[in-house]
Structures are given as structure tokens and as C-alpha cells.
Amino acid sequence: MKRVRDILRGIARGDRGAALVELAVVVPLFLLVFLGIIDFGRLGYDVVTAEKAMQQAARIAIVRTPACAGVTGVPVVPNTTGRDPANSDPIPPRFGTACNAGGTICAPVAEASCTLAQGIAAGNATAIEIWSRIDDIVPANATAANVRITYTDSAVLGSTNLRLGFLGGPYIPIVTAQVQGLTFNFVTPIAGFVRMMGGTSTFARSVQFPALSVSLPAEDLAPGENG
């Protein structure tokens, strides 16, 4: 009888050992999946909110005075559309002529670009308003220096036929709001869990956050000039 009890105890001890081994394998795998879902969920949330923030930033920028005006080293976006100095017609195009009526109707404008931090430092009201609206919804580690506002002439983009506006009227660029230069930090030690399970991993604790941008045409809200 004693021999039987000893045999049963040995089996029980062996079962406990096997259970511990199985637990040691399963727990890291479970934590890897569970915490990985949380981290990638955080990444997805940041991407969605950053995109929404850029939509708001672009929407504000297209109906306000340029956020880049007055920033040192950045071309000032013009208020009105002038004649193209390259036009050699004996009779210059009339004011009111659509910019897309020809390649040398409206003067091309150099791209103007600045970060919100530059605009805020220059006391630009548009830059200040944009940042006050999106500060709470951009990723937590984003600053005004990570948001860039760009005013691009469609002629510069090689799309003269798509140019907006008319000669003597308000200048209507393509306005782009972009979040850039961010990194996303994973809080889960994914590489450590992989090593615990006997594998190898080159998974980085931080990754480059995607550069998200939204582009809209500026709205023609101002009266044109007569000439």
C-alpha cells in the first residue's frame, strides 16, 4: 500500500512540474498578445486623432490669413493674384481672367511653408488659433514644431490647368497641414517576451510615426480688384 502511495505522489509531483513548464510557456505568449493589442491600439488611436487634427488645422488655415506671414525666411503668401511677368502678349490679360485660361495669365507664387511653432513665435494669429484647437487631440508627445502648414501654388505642382482663382482676385493656393517628425513609443517589452519564449526579435521600442497630411484649396472669401 505504501508503495502505491509513493508511486501516486511521484506522478502528482511530475504533473505539477509539467504544469509549471506549460505555464512558463503560455504566460509570456499571453502577455505578448494582450499587451501587444493594447500598444497597437494606442498607435491606431494616435493615427486617427492626428489625422482629425490635421483636418481641423487645414480647415482653419484655408479660411484665415496665412499662418506663415511674417515668419523670417518664409515667403509671404500674397493677398491678390497678379499678372505673370513672363506674359509677352501686346495686350496684357484683363483682370478677372481665370488663372487656368493659360500658362502665363497669373503670376506663379513660390511655396510658403512654416511650422506652427514658427508662426506662434512670430505672433501669427492663425498659427496661434490652429494650435489652440488641435493641442488636445494631437498625440501626447507632439508640439507645435511637429505641425507644418504649407501654401503651394498649383502651378508649382505642375498643374497649371487646375489653378484656382482669377487675375486680380484673391490668391487661392493649396493649403496642406501635416504632422511630422514624431515617434511612437511602445510600452510593452515585446522583444523581451519573444526572448522569454526562446526566440529572437529585432522589434524596436519606438517607431517613426507616419507623416499624415491633409490638403484643401483655400476658400475665395475676399473681393477681387477691378482693373
Q: Main β-sheet, in a few words? A: 4 strands, antiparallel
Mean pLDDT, as a whole number? 80
- Helices and strands, in order, run as HEHHEEEHEE
The class by helix and strand makeup works out as alpha+beta
Q: Write down the Rg.
A: 30 Å
Strand order of the largest sheet: 1-2-3-6
- Helix fraction bin: 25-40%
Q: Multimeric state of these chains?
A: single chain
Number of strands: 6
Which term fits the overall shape?
Answer: elongated
Please indicate the percent range of residues in DSSP E strands (runs of 2 or more).
Answer: 5-15%
Q: Which parts are unreliable, with pLDDT below 50 for 5 consecutive residues or more?
A: 221-227
Distance between the termini: 116 Å
Counting DSSP H or I runs of 4 or more residues, the number of helices is: 4
How would you describe the overall organization of this protein?
It comes from Albidovulum sediminis. It holds the Pfam family TadE. The chain crosses the membrane at residues 20-38. This is Pilus assembly protein. By secondary structure, this protein is an alpha+beta fold. It contains 4 helices and 6 strands; from the N terminus they run αβααβββαββ. The chain has helices at 2-62, 116-121, 125-134, 190-196, and strands at residues 112-115, 147-152, 174-179, 183-185, 206-208, 212-217. The strands form 2 sheets. A 4-stranded antiparallel beta sheet has the order 1-2-3-6. Helix 1 packs antiparallel against helix 3 and helix 1 runs antiparallel to helix 4.
Short key terms for the protein model shown above:
4 helices; 12% strand; elongated; 227 residues; four-stranded antiparallel β-sheet; alpha+beta
